[in-house]
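Illustration: Solute carrier family 2 member 2.
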Amino acid sequence: MESGKQLTGTLALAVFTAALGSLQYGYSLGVINAPQKVIERHYGRSLGVWSDKAAVLSENSTKEDELLEAGAHPDVVMYWSLSVAIFSIGGMFSSFLVGFVGDLRGRIKGMLMVNVLAVAAGLLMGLCKMWKPHIMVISGRAVMGLYCGLTSGLVPMYIGEIAPKAYRGALGTLHQLAIVIGILISQVIGLDFLLGNDDMWPLLLGLSGAPAVLQSLLLPLCPESPRYLYIKLGKEQEARKSLRRLKGEYVPTSDLEEMRREKEEAEKEAKVSILSLIRSTVYRQQLFVALMMHLSQQFSGINAIFYYSTAIFSRAGVSQPVYATIGVGVVNTIFTLVSVALVDKAGRRTLTLVGLGGMCCCAVAMTVGLRLQNEYAWMSYVSMTAIFLFVCFFEIGPGPIPWFIVAELFSQGPRPAAIALAGCCNWTSNFIVGMTFQYIEVFLGSYVFILFAGLLLVFTMFTYLRVPETKGKTFEEISAVFQKGRKKPLNSKDDTELEQLKTVTEA
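Result:
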């Protein structure tokens, strides 16, 4: 029976179970937006800087500048900003631990261990009214950030290692699909007539820990990564058993042979620490490509759209902007499904190029629309259409591909360190965009998306010139593409460097 072609029930269960972690990540990203005003009022009450009585007085008064909004108070602004930003800070720190957690007891036990963080975070936020809501929510968001930093590395690592070569792209894209479904779920149940209201918002935030409970029940039924078993632990029989569970009854000789060769390579190169990966010239090109792809995902301006889409839609004259934002979430999900269908046919490089180039054009159109909508009423439709198309192009390539291409660019030795570095780069740039966009918007006004258009043009050129196609290639073949670009005389130097890396990690 041909290996690598079959999709089995066990493989589907394993991928679905792992992707629950990504769903939780998406939910946590999106959940904080809808109930902002409600939460700010609770913060204001808890801090003693705002009361319902003050709100009633200011509504009845003619002055606009009185305490109508709790969110206008500097203390509330500070605690609210911290509630949003601490999530990214937690992710930045914990993404460095992905390799360590993944290798400690294996990918399955690693995901099980980190679920403790998700459940704890859910409880902190769900029970926040029992004490000071601002402290409880910020603590819960910090712990959830730690969880999401780990899961955003562990999930693509596990799926990338268990996926048959023919479906590696499509299954890798499911991480991003689960994220956007998580965002969409949080937007829908965050509507004020569901959970985004005065009574139910702690439950809305607390539910971000719910997928972890389901995942914890399903993980023991999933097979461990055969690559981890064979290459890291040297357990060939267990790896063979795991392959059979994942792919059904077939002769796993060719898969084991590929792993054996990768194990030999891994023994030659040794397990590479984060510091030695940064210093190493051997992996410099792969690392540069991996980090640039993650930077292109975050600095494309997509998070500016997600964080502030409601404000952008109301400026464009939409009477119910929250529904337009949910519309963006739906489009987001549909086009991630398109990417799942296309990624193993069209290839990673092509989809990334189409996505980045399309987003660049949309950013220009958005700027023109926002700039001229006061002169021409129909220009608001131009900027809204541009927002929807911007999201479509993002989900075709730049959204899903960076998450799993890192696992494809690196062999077993440096892979955990590379995923940790790429994850940290992603979270850091996410944090920078989230913190600075409001200030940049004030400074640049309707020209804000021209800045992103410029960045997107740079990323499109980089992808065209430097990113190789990884579709259908083994890890060995991908590595050879980078080595081909290197000058021959360096080989002996590379060999001595690999030897040094090996002795450093053995020491």
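Reading the tokens back as a structure: The radius of gyration is 24 Å.
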